[in-house]
Amino acid sequence: MTEPLLKVRGLKIGATAYPPGERPVAIKIVHGVDFELEAGKVLGLIGESGAGKSTIGLAAMAYGRGGVEITGGEGWVNGRDILKERLRSIRRLRGAEVTYVSQSAAASFNPAKKIMDQVTEAAIYQNKFSKAEAEDRAVELFRKLGLPDPETIGNRYPHQVSGGQLQRCMTALALCPEPDLVVFDEPTTALDVTTQIDVLAAIKEAIAATGVAALYITHDLAVVAQVSDHIMVLQQGEMVEYGTTDQIINNPQEEYTKALVSVRSIRHEEKTPTDTPVLRVENITARYAGTTFDVLKKINVDIHPGQTLAVVGESGSGKSTLARVITGLLPPTDGQITFDGRVLAPALSSRPIDDLREMQMIYQMADTAMNPRQTVGTIIGRPLEFYFGLKGKAKQKRIQELLDEIELGDGFQDRYPAELSGGQKQRVCIARALAAKPKLIICDEVTSALDPLVADGILKLLLNLQKIEDVAYLFITHDLATVRAIADSIAVMYQGEVVRYGPKSQVLSPPFDDYTDLLLSSVPEMKIGWLEETIEHRRMESAGN
Amino acid sequence: MLMHPVLKLIAQRLALGLLLLFAASVLIFVGTSILPGDVAQSILGQSATPEALANMRRELGLNDPAVTRYFAWLGGVLQGDLGTALTNGRDIADSLGGRLKNTLFLAFWAAAISVPLAISLGLLAVRYKDRWPDKLISAVTLTTISIPEFMIGYILIYWVAIKWRLFPSVAIINDSMSLGEKLNAIAIPVMVLTLVVLAHMMRMTRAAILNVMQSAYIETAELKGLGMLKIIRKHAFPNAIAPIVNVVMLNLAYLVVGVVVVEVVFAYPGMGQYLVDHVSKRDVPVVQASGLIFAAVYIGLNLVADIVSILANPRLRHPK
Fold first, then answer.
1. Which class for A236: exposed (0-12), middle (13-18), buried (19 or more C-beta within 10 A)?
2. What domains are there in chain B, each with its CATH number?
3. Which residues cross the membrane (chain B) (predicted)?
């Protein structure tokens, strides 16, 4: 039997934390992981954030990000243990034998240099190819990856191409030196779902065409099911399950893997609209100061009491701007908003305090939405004081009630945000919004920064709270699975317009308009071969037209 | 046809610079006008008769309203006429010209040595961050910036001029000297100025590059297997130019307008000494003219920094 391309044995990775005012503490990130990867194969690494996926991926290049250190184990690449080698010889491996594709190509390209120079840099520096050869290769890769103008796109600067194109350029960068192994670290996570499918297909084809092996890291099992031969499931730095893609998807053995496979299984029965919506948005048109085009064009939507309107669309479609207009942060240029039977003042500053109280917001980044120097009790207590004048015991009692509602037990009152997990932070933000006894909560991508299982918990909580408090949600998201899980009605936005709007059952059933069809069919399904089917289906359709 | 956005931005900056210079000229004029004391009195002395003072004031136009005098002065300045010095009746533009040339000569050589040195030391400090070369560079440059410049001047005179007899301690130059003789004369003042401005530029280079080194694209470069110095030079430096140029220009401005102490220590015939002499003699036209030239240098250099920052930004240079 031939030696595998990559053989990892007992890999241990750690870091040092510096808690303020205390002695430095050693943290273990990865506690002894073994795996192998044969030439030309793709291994998917899957797990939640903090599972150690990226850390393991970078260990294949003997690299520790920030203060991360590889503390033990062996990492054999092409028959030599790179974890034992000196930096000088490791540098000859990086960018030559093993290359890396990061999550954010936008951040990973140097803004001051042309794309071509960056794509060919490693190949030339590592003496794999001459400048002319490397550039020919790059153009060929640009073509294979389906980039427009493959001959000239390299002359552009990173900011001159779109996010999806840049992510393909990053793939070209990784493939240009003709490596044996590419580490793909969440390469499509930051992309819109409609862009993701094309990039995913391009990456898959490029892997197949070049015969390179790959470590494919992602938190999205449906994505990894499309590209990998084997899957390794990780949880908190340990391997939970390892198997072929078919086995992991269709016959998972471990509880944790089963939970990952069945994630997003929340089913929510749609409620019928009432006669009097709590919020009515009529003909809203808006633009930002100093610009000449409308970000929102004649938007009309209703939200009914105790129900959820999901606003779905790609980045830049105007979803968040709609929230800014409703809250009064951005006064519209035209149209009006009726809330609970009264017309709202366009600007935040001229709205009475009760209007402010009855409409609350929860944000995507719970981290930045809370004052890091206030305790959970203070954070939740603030709206109680501000809107209801609660003090002392009454306030404490209400804070505890709210903490019970969001399913956080005793002892959370005195904690600081830094001492909470991502999901717990978002729960505190929900409690803070609930404290104002609102009629409407605007949720702006509240689960987007969370791991799937944690996000599921938050969605379940929101649905429960809706039953108890009879609060309406305006739920902004780019994730269609989330929409399916909790919406009563849906508005699909595209380039500042609502292209499809109605009850969930109606919006999600055919006949579709072109954009909604594209959007819906781009969501990866937990099914092997879905990617090829969808791409093939689209080809047939466009050929048919 | 649409102007390239960069040209438009630069045109805006230039217009703003002119406006600023105009505002500075108003400030200088107002400032010197409200100074206590009377030019006529200071020219004629305490024993002057009231009639002589009145004549003198009329002759100097001191009785005209301030606005009239301002525009008369500004009009002259725009035509290159800076007026005549009250104390010796000489044309200011003539005497100032030679002084300005000397000041720029000293500033140029100090900059030619200190700027590349400061940036290289900054790069080295980043390369060996938190190790002994970094700490040594910081310690030495911070020490030299903390010692008053006249003190450094005297220390260097003691060692370099007196003990080792390498260069002269007095930096008097004139037009009949060759370039080599001139450079020999200003060697010690150039050393002093270099030591004074080094720390600021070095620290800024270090901070700006370290800031860039946090970026994801530096990690990309590391994962290409590039060496540290190459990464700093090729990937970090081009993105750190704007803040570095800003602090370099501030220091160049200092080299032109702020070196009076060094000029006095070395008896160097530059602008600073000339200005101080005439301030003590209450020679207002000279003070105004020098102030305006200093303001122009300051605004001009900062303008250059702004323009370089604009040009260094690839988003502005290559719009979508």
1. middle
2. 105-271 (1.10.3720.10)
3. 104-124, 136-162, 182-201, 240-269, 289-312
